[in-house]
Write a structure and sequence with these properties.
three-stranded antiparallel sheet
């Protein structure tokens, strides 16, 4: 999931988003430019243009992408 400049997820950490409970998906990494962080900590603050590397059922991923970001 790529975060655009206007994403409401920017400035929030992974624990706040609680994607596993809310959507049934797990963030297994964050790509930020040329850097990739695998197994990011729950306190990882998200930034514009981050790409979340996620694991989950395809339907759960699709639904997460379709819903407005919290």
């Amino acid at each position: 999931i790529a975060l655009g400049e206007n994403s409401e997820w920017i400035g929030k950490n992974l624990a706040e988003l609680d994607l596993r409970r809310r959507h049934g998906i797990s963030v297994i990494g964050v790509q930020r430019g040329d850097q990739r962080s695998l197994s990011p900590p729950p306190g990882e603050i998200l930034r514009a243009h981050d790409i979340l590397l996620i694991l989950g059922h395809p339907d759960a991923i699709r639904k997460c992408r379709e819903q407005p970001q919290p």
